[in-house]
C-alpha cells in the first residue's frame, strides 16, 4: 500500500508536468457550481449557501467541463485541469463518489489531436514507471456492432430495432428504456467485454446522434466523439465540441425532460455557460479522463480501494 500511495502522488505530479511541458495552461475551476452537468443518469451532490436572508442551492462538480469551456471562450487555447469531482449514487471496484478527473481542451483542434495527446501521455507515464506502452487500436462504433452482433448500426437506427436486437440477445430491459438505455445495455453486456478481451488499449469513435451530449455531429450524422479503454476499463470520453448555443440548449432541455421521466431531480441549465456559447466558443476538441482508472489500468490494480489511503465505504 505504501508503494502504491507513493506512486499515486508521483503519478499526479507527472501528469501536471506533462501538460505544463507541452505549453498547456492550468486552469482552476470552482468547487461550488450552479449546474454540475445535466446528463440524465448522473446524480450530483447538492449543498446550500446561506448568507443572512439569502439562500442559494449549489452543487459539487461532476466535471469541470462548463467552466473550462468558458475559459476557451475567454481566449485560452490549450488548457487543462486536474480536478476532484463528485458523483452521487455510484460506488464500485472501479469508482468512488469522490474521484480525480483530468480534462484538457485544445482550440482549433480535431479529435485526432486529442488521440495523439493520449498516446503521448500514456508513453510518458509508461516510461517513467517502466511499464510497457500498449498500442492503441481505433475502431468505429458501427464496426464493432457489426463485428460482435452482426447488426448494421446507423445514425438513423431506431429504438424498435434495438428492442428486437435486445430480445434476440436475451438482454433484460425496462419498459421505460429509451434508445440510449437499450444501446448501453447491448454495448455493456455484448460488445464492450468482447473488445476488452481482444485489445489492451482501444478507442471507439462515432456514436449515435442521440449520444452527442456536448459534441458536434459529423456530416453523415454520427456524434463526433470517442471513448478510450485501457486494460478493461473505460478511461476517457472526448468530444469535437459543440459550439452552436441553440442546439446545445435543445439538448440540455431534452436532458432535463429525461431526468423528469426517470423521477430524478431536474438540474438547472448553466445560463452563464450559455451566454458564453452565444458570444462564441472557438472550434475545439476536449477530453475528460478518469485519473484513478488510468492509474489502476497502468498498475493492473483491480479494486480502487487498494490505491486509496482513505476510501469511501458504505
Could you explain how this protein is built, in words?
- The chain has 314 residues and is α+β, with helices and mostly antiparallel strands.
- It has a single domain, classed as 2-Layer Sandwich (BirA Bifunctional Protein, domain 2), CATH 3.30.930.
- It is 39% helix and 21% strand.
- Strand 8 (223-230) and strand 9 form a beta hairpin.
- Helix 2 runs parallel beside helix 8 (271-279), helix 4 (141-149) crosses helix 6 (179-198) and helix 7 packs antiparallel against helix 8.
- The longest helix has 20 residues, at 2-21.
Write a concise synopsis of the structure shown.
The protein is of the alpha+beta class and 314 residues long. Helices cover 39% and strands 21% of the residues.
Task: Kindly name the structural category.
Answer: alpha+beta
Mean pLDDT: 96
CATH architecture: 2-Layer Sandwich
Biggest sheet details: 8 strands, mixed
Largest sheet strand order: 1-4-5-10-9-8-7-6
CA(first)-CA(last) distance: 21 Å
Q: Multimeric state of these chains?
A: single chain
Total domain count: 1
- For the secondary structure, the number of strands is 10
CATH fold type: BirA Bifunctional Protein, domain 2
